[in-house]
Amino acid sequence: MPVNETPAIEVSELTVHRGGNLVLDRVSCQVGAGSVTGLLGPSGSGKSTLIRSIVGVQKITSGTVQVLGRAAGSKPLRALIGYVTQAPSVYTDLTVRENLRYFAAVIGASPRDVDTVISSVGLTDKSGALVARLSGGQRTRVSLAAALLGEPQVLVLDEPTVGLDPVLRRDLWQLFKGLASSGSTLLVSSHIMDEADRCTQLLLLRDGRVLAADSPAAIRDHTDTADLESAFLALIDAEEVAAR
Description:
Blueprint: E1 7-18, E2 21-32, E3 36-40, H1 47-55, E4 62-67, E5 70-71, E6 81-84, H2 96-107, H3 113-120, H4 136-148, E7 154-158, H5 166-181, E8 185-190, E9 201-206, E10 209-214, H6 216-223, H7 228-243
Parallel strand pairs: 3-8, 3-9, 6-7, 7-8
Antiparallel strand pairs: 1-2, 1-4, 4-5, 9-10
């Protein structure tokens, strides 16, 4: 994949089996530093497994994954990567602020960061609320706030906008772009095609393989389509024809 920026993430020939099944099949891709890269594909395409490999919590069969020039999962990266899983990863018996104070202490972030990240995800009016009493979308935002603590260089977000209303989704994407403009690198997993045009570059996965890796405009041009959903379908059709 042509990448103009220095790559923050480099994946080479990555193969992963889970439960005896091939989940990722010799995946190679790069994520440019300071970009917002969308990782798109249908359920079961391998998005979450690729993300887990990048943050260093997935056992791989073969291949390599480098983040900021280091092997994925290596100790020096722990303070440099923020990771948001699909399921909210916060304590329901603590308030929003208590959760973030705790996570700030764990990673050694400044206590002053707590108010900043609460504001960034739009939860200032809920800062004293127990997480157990929040909606699913609000809990997701608490997890995102925790990932923002310490100003990580790389943010890996697995379906961060699921269950959020259109206004909040728009606001979060504005936040993502602002973070990238400040030098952070974001890899954002989604199955929502209308979010793809908000990204600097895209990685389209299907059945554990990369179908395309380029800017949204380049992918549309390559497939001669008007929107990315049509482009994705055109790429699938072309692959099926080539396999016959």
